[in-house]
Every structure is written in C-alpha cells, then in structure tokens.
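To the wet lab folks,

You asked to see what we're planning to order before we commit. Fair enough. Below is the target structure as tokens, and below that is the sequence we designed to fit it. If anything looks off to you, flag it before the synthesis order goes out.
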C-alpha cells in the first residue's frame, strides 16, 4: 500500500523536475538573446544525438504506454508489441529519407515544410490537424491514463490530480521552451525506464522466471499470447498482414510527419546528430516489449496461479460472470509486488511519462501557432511577441485537453482508442508526405484536395463505425481500414496530379528525391556511429527479433 515515504519520493521528484526545467530553460534563453524565438521553440538548434534520441522516446512513451501496454500484455500477450517494434523500421525511414529534407530546408515546423513543397493551403490544413491531434492524442489521453493511476493509488479525484500535475508541467514548458522540454525529457526517460525495469524484475522474480510463465500459458492453452504475428482469423482483429500493411500508414505519420515528434529532430545541431539521434531512439524502442508488455503477461500467469489478487479490479457482469477491469493491472502490480519506497519510484516513473508527453505536445503546439498561424497574419512580429503568443497557445491547449477528459474516458481501452483515432487521421497526411518527397510529379492542387477529402472521408468512416457497430463495415480491423484509406488517398493524389500538373517553384524543385539513393550519398560520421551502419544494425536486429517472437 501507499506509505508516507512513497508520497515524499513522488512529490520530491515533481519539484526537482520543475526546478531543473525552469533553470535550464531560463539559462539557455539568457545565453541566446540574439534569436529568442529559435532559442525558445527549437533550442537554438543545439541538440545533440543522445538528447534527441531520449527526447523522441520520452515524447512517444507516456503513462498511456505503462498502463495500456501492461493491460494489453495481460489481455492479448505480446500482440501490441508490434506497435513498438515496427516503429524501429519507421525511424530508419525518418533517419535516411526525411531528416535530410527537414534539416536542409531550415523549417521550424512540418507545416512550413509542406508549404515549401506544395502550397499555403496544405500548410494550413496540416497545422490544424497537427494541433488537434496533439491535443487529443498526446495530451488528453496521457492525462486520462495518469489520472486513472493516481486515483487508484492515492484515492484523489482524477481531474484534480491531473490539473495539478499539468500546471506544474506547463510552468517549465511555457517558461523554458524546447531546451527545458528536451533536458527534462531525457531525465524522465531514464526514470521511466528504471521504474519499468523494477516492476519487470519484480514480476519475473515472483513468477520464478520465464520458463515457469511459459508452462502456465501452455497449461491454460494460452500459448498464443507469446506470438506477435497472428494468423488471418485471429480473434484479436490484428492478423500479421494487417500489421505489415496498416502500421506503416500510422507509423510514418506519427514518426515522420507529426510536429510533436519531429520537433526534436528540427532542433538538432546538424544532420548527423539528427540522424543518429533518430536511430538511437529506434534501438531504445526494442525495450518496451520487455519492460512494458511482458510484465502484463507475467501478471496474467501470476493471477492464474493465485499469486496476484485481482479482486479489487473484478466486477460481476450482467450474466453473473466475473469481469476483470484490466486497465488497473499495472497499478495492481505496483501495490502488490513492490515494497514501500519502490512504490514511490514507480509513481515517479508514471509521472515522468505523463509530464514528458504533455510538455512535448505543448511546446509543439506553441511553435505551430506562433509560426504557422500568428506570424502569417502579423509577419513583422519580433521574437518576443512570437514567444508570448506561443505561451498563450500552450495554456489554451492545456485547458481544452482537460475539457476532453470525460469524453475520452468512455473508451474501454486507452491504447486501442488512440490507435483507432490515428488510423483515421493518418492516411491522407502519410500519402501527401510520401508522394511529395519521392515523386517529382506530386502537385500542390492534388495535395490540397487529398488532404481535405481524405480527412473528411476518415471522419465519416470513423463516425459510421461508432454509430453502427454491428455491421460488416465496422468489423474491418482499424489497421486494415488505415491501409484502405491510404490506398484510396494515393490513387486520388496520383490521378489529381495528372489532372492538375505540378508547377514547381525554385524552392520546391529541390524538395524531393530524384532517386531513392540520393539521401544515402552523405558520408556521415566514421566508424560505428555512421548512420548507414546503425541503420543496417537496427534493421537486422528487428528482423531477428520478429523471427524469434513470430
């Protein structure tokens, strides 16, 4: 149970992060007076590869992952690990093909890049979608997961606890800018991984090892939980082909075309630091399967052998059968498997995930509002006014996210809810970025119409699936729906590009790859730190892991 020492550890951690964030951000801005806006939004483009890799990982991993991946491990085994390991392949694409464009174009935001490649309309639409997705996916869902955990552990009101944590996060984010965000994210990544490692070891020790867990799964006829790639008619609704066809659509948008993620790359010191930092994150993405999902799988076998009491998260269904509310499984593991003191460390890890996700999204929103919206109508603004506008935008976004919590709380599974929404947002954006970078003929008119029509179609499909849940249409796995929507968008943009041929500007004529080999001509650093060598090692490592856990 929660003891005073655990509360002291958690509270001390929050205050320490607040102090570090404020100190780093204010100190960096004092040293970068010449370009205050660049210093605030992009850390003066001074970030090195370790900070970039850790910050990318911290922005991606949040309390949602600790809670929901443990839940998915309990419910479906290693299946959700596909989202973690497939991300490594997407990060290789980001490092090899997208990063060089973003760095050499000198953009501050991805909508800014889209304007240079296409036109102003494409930039405006991506800005709108990026801000909305950051509010819903990166902030609101993270706050919801954190609130559920804090309520379960401490018995405090879910909304009150989230408001307090978010106000503290907003303080150092709004005051300190990207430099404060990246430094605190790097610290919080270490804390988060340490905390997750502790609970993983506790589960492993309690179960007496991996072989004992496997034996229980065999005896319960649940060996399928050890498989990541499922057959075509698997009841999970995520067969192997849906993973390989659908995930790239979600992953390319999330890792290569989402401002909240890519902003860490835009703040890189140079192209090599951006590329190696991205690949460093790809290697770190191997860990979540082992430290986030497998503990949930251990929890399942511990419960089956009577070593984990599920009574506090078990209710009776209408048919009289017990129903396990598995969203609370991570909290249950913390309170039943860890001694006092370590519980405080795990709570600090959960808070790390919440704070890093919220801080990263707030900084990205403030950057897009300042550069992509406000500066358009007031082009002669000085840096100080741009920064002030960004701070106000971050505060408004935080308030709006808090208002969404009751609505998003209706999702039975937070992780599934996030990916369901992404599956209907991502297809047109992934399409426009891919064709824009790899095809000379992608025109501005085709991109604009594809973004508008593709986004509208995604919204219609999402609405139909939620209103008529018993139809064959609603039964299509969301990963396959993402692939179908993406295929439609690609065909639409190609056809429209022939109807409305491209007319390149002097700038857009340089913003596509004439050949897929072109981005690989850069030499990079010598030795093991070379981006080509690291990409090959990461690719082979992931292929081997998928084979072992197929």
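Sequence we intend to order:
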């Amino acid at each position: 149970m929660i003891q005073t020492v655990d509360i002291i550890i958690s509270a001390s951690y929050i205050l320490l992060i607040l102090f570090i964030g404020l100190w780093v951000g204010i100190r960096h801005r004092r040293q970068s007076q010449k370009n205050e806006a660049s210093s605030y939004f992009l850390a003066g483009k001074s970030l090195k590869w370790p900070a970039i890799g850790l910050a990318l990982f911290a922005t991606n991993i949040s309390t949602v992952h600790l809670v929901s991946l443990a839940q998915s491990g309990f419910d479906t085994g290693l299946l959700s690990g596909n989202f973690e390991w497939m991300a490594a392949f997407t990060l290789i694409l980001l490092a090899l093909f997208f990063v060089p464009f973003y760095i050499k174009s000198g953009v501050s935001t991805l909508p800014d890049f889209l304007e240079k490649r296409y036109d102003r309309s494409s930039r405006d639409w991506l800005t709108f979608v990026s801000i909305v997705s950051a509010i819903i996916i990166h902030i609101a869902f993270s706050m919801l997961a954190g609130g559920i955990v804090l309520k379960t552990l401490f018995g405090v009101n879910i909304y009150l606890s989230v408001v307090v944590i978010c106000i503290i996060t907003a303080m150092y984010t709004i005051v300190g800018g990207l430099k404060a965000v990246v430094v605190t994210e790097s610290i919080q990544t270490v804390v988060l991984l340490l905390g997750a490692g502790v609970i993983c070891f506790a589960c492993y020790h309690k179960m007496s090892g991996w072989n004992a867990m496997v034996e229980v799964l065999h005896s319960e006829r649940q060996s399928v939980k050890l498989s990541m790639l499922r057959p075509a008619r698997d009841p999970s609704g995520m067969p192997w082909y849906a993973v390989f066809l659908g995930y790239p659509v979600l992953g390319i948008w999330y890792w290569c075309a989402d401002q909240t993620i890519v902003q860490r790359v835009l703040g890189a010191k140079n192209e090599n630091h951006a590329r190696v930092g991205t690949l460093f994150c790809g290697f770190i993405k191997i860990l979540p399967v082992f430290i986030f999902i497998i503990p949930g799988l251990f929890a399942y076998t511990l419960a089956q052998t009577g070593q984990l009491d599920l009574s506090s998260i078990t209710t009776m269904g209408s048919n009289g059968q017990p129903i396990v509310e598995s969203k609370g499984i991570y909290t249950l593991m913390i309170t039943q498997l860890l001694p006092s003191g370590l519980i405080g460390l795990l709570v600090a890890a959960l808070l790390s995930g919440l704070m890093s996700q919220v801080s990263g999204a707030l900084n990205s929103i403030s950057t897009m509002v300042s550069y992509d919206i406000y500066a358009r109508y007031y082009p002669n603004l000085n840096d100080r006014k741009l920064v002030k506008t960004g701070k106000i935008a971050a505060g408004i976004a935080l308030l709006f996210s808090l208002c969404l919590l009751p609505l998003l709380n209706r999702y039975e599974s937070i992780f599934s809810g996030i990916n369901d929404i992404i599956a209907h947002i991502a297809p047109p954006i992934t399409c426009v970025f891919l064709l824009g970078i790899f095809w000379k003929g992608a025109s501005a008119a085709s991109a604009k119409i594809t973004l508008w029509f593709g986004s509208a179609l995604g919204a219609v499909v999402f609405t139909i699936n939620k209103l008529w849940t018993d139809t064959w249409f609603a039964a299509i796995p969301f990963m396959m729906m993402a692939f179908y929507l993406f295929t439609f968008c690609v065909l639409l943009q190609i056809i429209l590009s022939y109807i409305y041929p491209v007319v390149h500007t002097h700038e857009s004529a340089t913003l596509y790859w004439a050949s897929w080999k072109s981005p690989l001509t850069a030499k990079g650093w010598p030795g093991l730190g070379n981006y080509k060598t690291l990409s090959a090692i990461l690719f082979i490592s992931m292929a081997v892991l998928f084979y072992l856990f197929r």
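Structural context that might help your review: The chain is about 75% helix and 0% strand. Confidence is low (pLDDT under 50) at residues 38-44.

Thanks,
Computational group
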